[in-house]
Amino acid sequence: MFRLAVFLCALCAVSWGFLCLHIVTPGKWGGRPANCSSPLKAVQTGYVIILHTAGSSCKTGAQCNQQMMNIQHYHMNKGWCNIAYNFLIGEDGKVYEGRGWNTEGAHTYGYNDISLGIAFIGDFTGRSPNAAAWIALKHLLHFALENGYLSSDYLLMAHGDVSNTISPGQPIRKVLKTWPHYKH
């Protein structure tokens, strides 16, 4: 089994030019079925909103799976039809599917139906996510561009750029400001 995992990782690295994206689907992290799924206004969106969940962070697959279930439970108990974000990123270096591609989120008023909402799992008001989480975000954005989910001139924004909130925290905003698609 270990040899197969090494082979698949090597194959992934070669085929993606060393960009390995690992998306954990709701069926793998223990997600409940969604109660709705309105589509985004455009298949190829022009906006990405970066947020944080403001709760506990996670550094292992088991911790991140539990956090995903906790977040979904909290959001659905508030009356939302599913977890608010399109994707979430753990400090285990994996991307966790929330609402997924082409589905309207519930993360940023005025942008839910025209953007992808990507949240780092944890509270990042006092520190930045680890390198594995940043790499996962870069891989997710690259994948979205290459597969037509994002327009080539998309705008990357921090949640606090378009809402009255501290999310995703200054440490994340400081890094995002150095990225080419960042727009404040």
Task: Describe the fold and architecture.
The chain has 184 residues and is an alpha/beta fold. Helices cover 34% and strands 17% of the residues. The chain contains 6 helices and 6 strands, in the order H-E-H-E-H-E-E-E-H-E-H-H. The protein has a 6-stranded mixed sheet, sandwiched between helices. Strand 3 and strand 4 form a beta hairpin. The chain is globular, with a radius of gyration of 16 Å. The termini are far apart.
Q: What amount of the residues lies in strands? A: 15-25%
E-strand count: 6
In DSSP terms (H or I, runs of 4 or more residues), the helix count works out at 6
* Low-pLDDT stretches: 4-18
Oligomer: single chain
State the secondary-structure class.
Answer: alpha/beta
- Overall geometric form: globular
What percent of residues adopt helix (DSSP H or I)?
25-40%
Name the strands of the widest sheet in spatial order. Answer: 1-4-3-5-2-6
Roughly how many Å is the radius of gyration?
16 Å
